[in-house]
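To the wet lab folks,

You asked to see what we're planning to order before we commit. Fair enough. Below is the target structure as tokens, and below that is the sequence we designed to fit it. If anything looks off to you, flag it before the synthesis order goes out.
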């Protein structure tokens, strides 16, 4: 727009010089026409300028949560049109894409005109790391036909999309441990067990079934022998403590490791808890994961929390009860969270998964036999975690 203004100013100077040097009706008419031209252009362009409409949307994922695995692309669409039968002058848009989890930022400019027919401008969002991506149109202006005046446009200016962590297939071992407490006990919806207090399903009698599990009343009523399959209790003895305060690659690798471990457990219906810091609320959040459907909302909340500083003081009341194995994911272990885990769960196993190879001196109060350290190498997550006992 400044180029149009400079050009008009130079033309106006020439017309004024012509009027001074050649005084007459022609030079006067030309001067008046030059002075009125911007006003006429604004009056003619104003209806089409006010009629410009824009919609910014992101595809992929679900309608409520647009998202894709990192490395894939998410289509970002800017739709423009004019509610009047006229075409507007040039419309300028500045699109800013910011990954709140890693702090990465990109900018792109669009220049177009808005007519009665809808136009669709697409931009492919990509990211090498997981994160919450906020796409915002920071500057959206429409100019008159001469490009001398501009009006800001109103409308939806921001959409949010997510790049989810990569889930690696792992070969892990599960440590058989009794359920720490029976409070809030859940039962599997997919597998039978041996808990006589819960009925999983009924099926026809097969050779080798125990007679004590025959449902005699219902068998007599239906005329065939039915056997009761008992419920399988789900234990949530595992706890993950997330400390994602390293650089962007370290935080990305730690979240990939957590997503892979959590998905492995959720597929086998092994419920577990996750504790992480929420800067927006200024408190630790504890979430329970019992099935695969619980993962996306959890990832979304963790990614939306943005880049994190070192964990604040972790109090014991922020941790759930009945934990037999605590897994601390961090770039380098901090003394205070480890001591809190030790004091809260004195008989539990502790595993530290870290990305930095430095071997910091751990506090002497920790039980060395109960602490296992795993070095996580970005890009080699399966090799780093395979064989881990949960």
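Sequence we intend to order:
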């Amino acid at each position: 727009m400044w180029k149009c203004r400079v050009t008009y100013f130079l033309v106006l100077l020439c017309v004024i010089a012509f009027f001074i040097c050649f005084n007459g009706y022609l030079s006067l008419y030309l001067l008046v026409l030059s002075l009125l031209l911007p006003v006429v252009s604004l009056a003619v362009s104003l209806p089409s300028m006010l009629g410009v409409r824009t919609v910014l949307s992101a595809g992929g994922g679900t309608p409520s949560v647009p998202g894709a695995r990192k490395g894939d692309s998410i289509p970002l669409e800017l739709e423009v049109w004019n509610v009047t039968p006229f075409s507007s002058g040039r419309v300028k848009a500045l699109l800013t894409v910011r990954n709140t989890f890693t702090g990465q930022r990109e900018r792109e400019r669009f220049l177009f005109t808005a007519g009665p027919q809808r136009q669709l401008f697409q931009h492919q969002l990509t990211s090498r790391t997981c994160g919450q991506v906020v796409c915002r149109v920071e500057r959206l202006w429409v100019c008159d036909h001469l490009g001398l005046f501009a009006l800001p446009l109103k409308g939806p200016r921001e959409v949010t999309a997510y790049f989810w962590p990569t889930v690696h297939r792992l070969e892990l071992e599960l440590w058989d441990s009794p359920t720490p407490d029976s409070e809030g006990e859940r039962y599997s919806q997919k597998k039978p067990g041996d808990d006589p207090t819960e009925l999983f399903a009924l099926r026809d009698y097969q050779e080798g079934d125990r007679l004590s599990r025959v449902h005699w009343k219902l068998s007599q009523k239906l005329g065939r022998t039915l056997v009761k399959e008992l419920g399988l209790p789900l234990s949530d003895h595992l706890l993950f403590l997330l400390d994602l305060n390293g650089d962007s690659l370290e935080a990305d690798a730690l979240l990939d490791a957590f997503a892979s471990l959590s998905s492995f457990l959720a597929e086998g219906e092994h419920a577990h808890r996750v504790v992480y810091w929420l800067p927006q609320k200024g408190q630790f959040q504890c979430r329970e994961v019992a099935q695969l459907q619980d993962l996306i909302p959890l990832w979304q909340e963790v990614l939306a929390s943005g880049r994190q500083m070192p964990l604040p003081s972790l109090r014991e009341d922020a941790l759930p009860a009945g934990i037999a194995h605590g897994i601390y994911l961090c770039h380098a272990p901090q003394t205070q969270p480890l001591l809190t885990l030790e004091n809260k769960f004195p008989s539990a196993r502790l595993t530290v998964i870290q990305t930095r190879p430095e071997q910091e001196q751990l506090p002497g109060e920790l039980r060395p036999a109960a602490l296992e350290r795993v070095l996580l190498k970005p890009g080699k997550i399966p090799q780093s975690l395979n064989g881990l006992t949960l």
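Structural context that might help your review: The two ends are 63 Å apart (CA to CA). The domain at 49-164 is CATH 2.60.40.10 (Immunoglobulin-like).

Thanks,
Computational group
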